[in-house]
Design a protein that fits this description.
The chain is α/β, with parallel strands linked by helices. It has 32 helices and 22 strands. It has 5 domains: about 190 residues, P-loop containing nucleotide triphosphate hydrolases (Rossmann fold, 3-Layer(aba) Sandwich); about 180 residues, P-loop containing nucleotide triphosphate hydrolases (Rossmann fold); about 100 residues, Winged helix-like DNA-binding domain superfamily/Winged helix DNA-binding domain (Arc Repressor Mutant, subunit A); about 120 residues, DNA polymerase, domain 1, CATH 1.10.150.80; about 100 residues, no CATH class. It is about 45% helix and about 15% strand. A hairpin with a 2-residue loop joins β19 and β20. The structure holds adenosine-5'-diphosphate and zinc ion.
């Protein structure tokens, strides 16, 4: 058997996802790997598949007990022998498990890092053949990250102490450069294959809403999505309890999680959520690490998180199964106050000196400002997130609240001038609150104390609310007209651009929702509801939906019998695929995505029975429009699929390629970065039928054909042009990062652009 057979037989999938195969082949060649992939991209497969092909055992180090349990359950369901060893077992159970492991009973064992240095485990490691050590959540080893765990350093000692060095594979979803370098360095990876896949989560809809009453918004949302599982994050315990109680009163099957609850209750509530007994979870950010629930259909953040890193991690818990899901952030200016308060009340790190503490504070402040701008921007939210994480993509995604909202440009030059004058008059000594208060003419003790009520610009924008003025100031910050100091006071400063606006050389524009006037949005009116990406199950017609519900019931029966969460039996995606393909026998059932041989033996029969019973053995169309041809000689659905329906089956899009005609429209330039080439290439394709291409994919190909490579020089990862690349027109150039640091990157001249294009022409 090779890796493809394993994928099909045990996991029921036909093909690898982006990056998976590269990493797996490297491991099978005996090379160390570091896989950086966003949540839900499928990291587990990358070590589970090779684990089955390597001769010895794979030891997976994972920080969280809940995660281990989930993984082991899934593996056992798939017919793979695996076990976990952690503090939730008794000493007797641990001995037994290690004994079985040493005897070769398990291909994969999961352990917590603390376990590695115990005498018992050491003894086991000496006796057993360990082919690979896999480090999950590998960023925990980096002191740069937010989740540093000292126990992770024990992994290094453990590997060093082994008689034969195993293959080391490490995985994380954290992408920052510093963390990436740290992992490779601290873990002592040997010439690792490092692979970063795109951070875009195409199936997630991103939205920012500013409802007047957040609790009413949430109640309404949940009423509309009552059949679905979701998480509501709140900044404080008090908020969690408040929302939880309101939902409870409405009869919602809801549970909650925060540090104020006892251990027992937390565990119980978490299980209620995972097992879909209570599919709605209200929680603080203490909840979620290690939660693998794949069918979370929405994540609502009731308060703005403190950083975009935090937000993307929390929001990313939606839609891990790859099906459409929604991530909605409810913003109000009060959130900034809460976030600052939480930041200030965080314990100082004792082993940092004053200077380092100050640096950390600055870093936190910067992160907060990025988060605030996310809530304020009128441009594509996905593009904003990805750009922050260092990826460049098309300027509009078509699946976020800003892309789906029609905006109009409004000239705000006059207001901008008033704001600039005010900041200047007050000698750039105040933050946004005082400036906005002054301009809108607020009459507070604080403003009187500062003496700004007698300023010439006092009340010069009295027709606007304070929030309205702040919105314009924020827009001006994004346009680079105003900056602010990096300390906690965030004093507003004027840039050179401000001068040319006062001089009337430049105008300032602001995008506003068309159907929603300026003041309304400021006052926090919710935006008009928008047309979002459809759910996977939306491709089913009424008969299909009926069958889907029945299959869900079958799944629930199995789940109860087995004491496992339903999604471990089969994901929603798999059930929908059953409704589309209508398998009548084993052969046909095995063509369904997510049905492997082992799961078929275990559960196939009752699902087959239900399908036969519901359809009466007649293959009709249980879905709208056209699906791709299905395997097993089934009838081919008719043509005539609409663009929208095609978008819904986005999982089935073709890999990127170009026709000759499309290629001719490429906007050649003197030089481009790879990411820019990728964006232009992607724009040429038919987005309904074809996946877009990422810069990292092109990079990997250029590395494969020996044009360039990425190497560690003086502790930093550096791209290098090889001889072949120089001939082809690759040149080094200097770029400036968001933080103002200069660094080297590769540029591609028009000859190189042509060569890249040719590669994609079919
Ligand atoms: P991660 O650990 O990266 O967050 P997981 O390993 O939990 O992601 O995988 C997320 C989901 O994607 C799982 O339901 C998994 O079964 C599914 N998956 C992984 N690889 C594939 C594949 N090649 N084809 C289809 N589904 C896949
Ligand atoms: Zn967008």
């Amino acid at each position: 058997m090779n890796e493809f057979d394993i994928l099909k037989k045990y996991f029921g999938y036909d093909s690898f996802r982006e990056g998976q195969h590269t990493l797996i082949s490297s491991i099978l060649k005996g090379q160390d790997v570091l896989g950086i992939m966003p949540t839900g991209a499928g990291k587990s497969i990358c070590y589970q598949v090779p684990a089955l092909l390597l001769s010895g055992i794979t030891v997976v180090i994972s920080p969280l007990i809940s995660l281990m349990k989930d993984q082991v359950q899934s593996l056992n369901q798939a017919g793979i022998h695996a076990a976990y060893i952690n503090s939730s077992l008794t000493d007797g159970q641990i001995s037994k498990a290690l004994q079985l492991a040493a005897a070769g009973r398990y291909k994969i064992i999961y352990v917590a890092p603390e376990r590695l240095e115990t005498y018992e485990f050491q003894l086991f490691a000496e006796r057993a053949e360990i082919s690979m050590v896999t480090v999950d959540e590998a960023h925990c080893i980096s002191q740069w990250g937010q989740d540093f765990r000292p126990s992770y350093l024990k992994i290094v000692q453990f590997i060093r102490g082994m008689r034969t060095r195993p293959i080391v594979s490490a995985f994380t979803a954290t992408a920052t450069e510093a963390v990436k370098e740290d992992i490779a360095c601290v873990l002592g990876l040997q010439e690792p294959q490092i692979l970063t896949t795109g951070f875009d989560r195409e199936n997630l809809y991103f939205g920012v809403e500013t409802p007047r009453k957040k609790d009413a918004y949430i109640l309404g949302y949940i009423k509309e999505h009552s059949m679905e599982s979701g998480v509501i994050y709140c900044a404080t315990r008090k908020n969690v309890d408040m929302i939880y109680e309101k939902l409870l009163l409405e009869g919602t099957p809801v549970t909650r999680y925060h540090a104020g609850l006892g251990n027992e209750e937390r565990k119980q509530n978490q299980d209620d959520f995972i097992y879909d007994r209570k599919p709605v979870m209200v929680a603080t950010n203490a909840f979620g690490m290690g939660i693998d629930k794949s069918n979370v259909r929405y994540v609502i953040n009731c308060n703005m998180p403190q950083s975009l890193e935090n937000y993307y991690q929390e929001a990313g818990r939606a839609g891990r199964d790859g099906e459409p899901a929604e991530c909605i952030l409810l913003y109000s200016p009060q959130d900034v106050v809460i976030a600052r308060f939480l930041m200030d009340s965080r314990e100082a790190k004792p082993d940092y000196d004053e200077g380092e503490q100050e640096l950390l504070r600055e870093r936190d402040e910067k992160r907060l400002q990025t988060m605030i701008s996310y809530c304020m921007t009128k441009n594509c939210l996905r593009e904003y997130i990805l750009r922050y994480f260092g990826e460049f993509t098309a300027p509009e995604c078509g699946n976020c609240s800003n892309c789906l909202q029609e905006f109009e440009q409004i000239d705000i030059t006059e207001d901008a001038k008033k704001i600039i004058s005010c900041i200047r008059e007050l000698h750039q000594r105040y933050g946004i609150n005082v400036i906005a208060g002054t301009l809108s003419g607020a009459n507070t003790a604080k403003l009187r104390e500062y003496g700004v009520t007698t300023a010439a610009s006092y009340a010069s924008m009295a027709e606007k609310s304070e929030a309205g003025v702040k919105q314009i100031i924020n827009q001006m910050m994004m346009d680079g007209i105003i900056s602010h100091t990096e300390d906690k006071y965030a004093l507003l400063r004027l840039t050179a651009k401000a001068g040319s606006i006062l001089d009337g050389e430049e105008a300032v524009f602001m995008k506003l929702p068309k159907d929603n006037g300026l003041s309304e949005r400021y006052a926090g009116e919710g935006k008009a509801s928008v047309q979002r990406k459809a759910r996977r199950s939306d491709i089913l017609n009424s008969k299909g939906l009926e069958l889907f519900d029945r299959l869900r019931e079958v799944r629930l029966i199995y789940a109860k019998e087995q004491g496992t969460p339903p999604y471990i039996i089969f994901s929603d995606k798999t059930l929908v695929d059953m409704c589309v393909k209508l398998p009548f026998d084993r052969e046909e059932m095995l063509t369904v995505s997510g049905v492997g041989e082992n799961k078929f033996e275990k559960y196939g029969s009752r699902f087959l029975e239900e399908i036969l019973r519901s359809t009466g053995g007649v293959k009709e169309k249980y879905y709208f429009g056209d699906q791709e041809e299905t395997a097993g000689g089934m009838q081919n659905p008719d043509a005539g699929e609409s663009a929208k329906q095609r978008r819904q089956s986005s999982g089935k899009k073709q890999e990127f390629s170009l026709t000759l005609e499309q290629a001719q429209q490429f906007p050649y330039a003197q030089r481009y970065l790879l990411t820019e080439i990728a964006v232009h290439l992607s724009e040429l394709r038919d987005e309904n039928t074809m996946k877009k291409i990422a810069g990292t994919q092109i990079q990997r190909w250029l590395e494969e054909i020996g044009f360039q490579e990425e190497k560690r020089i003086d502790g930093k990862w550096q791209k290098i042009i090889l001889e072949k690349g120089m001939e082809a027109g690759l040149v080094m150039g200097t770029r400036t990062s968001k933080l103002g640091n200069e660094y080297e990157d590769i540029f591609y001249d028009s000859k190189a652009q042509k060569m890249i294009l040719d590669h994609f022409i079919r």
